[in-house]
C-alpha cells in the first residue's frame, strides 16, 4: 500500500466525523427556528420536517433511491431505516409531551449512543472500546446538564409513558443510524464482473449509497405527510409558518441528514450518534445568542463536558479506525 493510500484511508474517519459534527450543528438550529413559528405543536414540526424533507430528499436522489428499493441487498436496510425513522419521529415528540421537554430530550438523545453500541454489539458482534465508553459517559453527562439548564417545563401526561417513549425514540434513532450505515455499505460493495465484459463495467458508487438514504426518507415521508395533513391542518394553513417549515425541511432534514449519511460511510453508528450529542450544545448557544435564554454555570459546564467527550473520541487511535476494520470483515 502506498503512503498516499494510507493517508487517504486514515483521513476517511476524520472526514466522516466532521460531516456528522456539521450535521449536528445544522440540527442544533431547529429549536431556534421553531421559535419563529409560535403556537405550532411539537409533533407537527416533526411530521412536517421529516415528511416534507423526506419527500424532497427522495426526489433529489432520484433513480438511486428506486434502485435501493429494488436491490435485494439494500431493500431490507431501507425498510428497517424507514420504519425506525417513523417510530422515532412519533415517539420523540410523545416523550416531550408526557415527560416534559427537558427530561424527554435528555433520555431520548442521551440513550441513543448507548443503544447504538448495544445494537452493534448484538448484531455485528463488535464490543465498544474503552475510549468510546468514557467519551459517551462524559458527553451524555454534559448533554444532561445542558438540557436541564435550558428548560423546566413539565410534561402533561403519564411520566412512565413519557420515559418509555423517550427510550423508544433513543432505540429507534440508533436503529435508523445502524440500518442506513449497513445499507450504504451494501450499496457500495464491489460486485464481481465477468471477464471479458462487453463494455466497461460501472459498479456501485456514491450515488447508490445516497440512494439508500433517499429510499429511507421517501418511505418514511408517506405516513408522516398524512399525519401532518390530518393533525396539523391549523398550522399548515398559516402562511407565516411556511418559511420555518421550509427551512426545517431543507436545512436540518435534507442537508443535515445528507451530511449524517456521509459520515456513516466511514464511522460507526455508535460513534455517529455520540457525535450528534453536539446538537444540544449548538441549540443551547443559539438560544442564548438569538432567543435570549439564560444558560447558567451548570449549563456552560455541560457544554464543556460535551466538547471534552467528543474531543476524547477524536484523538488518534479511537473507534472510527476499528470500525473500518470491522466493515471489511463483515462485507466478505
Can you give me a brief rundown of this structure?
By secondary structure, this protein is an all-alpha fold.
Q: Can you describe what's shown?
A:
The protein has 332 residues and is mainly α. It has one domain. It is built from 15 helices and no strands. Helix 3 packs across helix 11, helix 5 runs parallel beside helix 9 and helix 6 packs antiparallel against helix 12. It is globular, with a radius of gyration of 20 Å. The N terminus and C terminus are likely disordered.
Write the layout of secondary structure elements.
Blueprint (H helix, E strand, L loop, with lengths): L2 H25 L2 H5 L7 H20 L1 H8 L1 H28 L1 H24 L5 H21 L8 H29 L18 H26 L1 H4 L5 H23 L4 H7 L2 H14 L4 H19 L4 H12 L2
Uncertain ranges: 1-11, 190-204, 318-332
Describe the global form. globular
Helical content (DSSP H or I, runs of 4+): over 70%
Mean of residue pLDDT?
Answer: 82
Main beta sheet strand tally, sense and closure? none
Structural class: mainly alpha
Number of domains: 1
Main location: membrane
Family: Belongs to the EamA transporter family.
Keywords: Cell membrane, Membrane, Transmembrane, Transmembrane helix
Membrane topology: Multi-pass membrane protein
Task: Provide keyphrases for this structure.
single chain, transmembrane helix, 332 residues, 80% helix, disordered C terminus, mainly alpha, EmrE-like, transmembrane
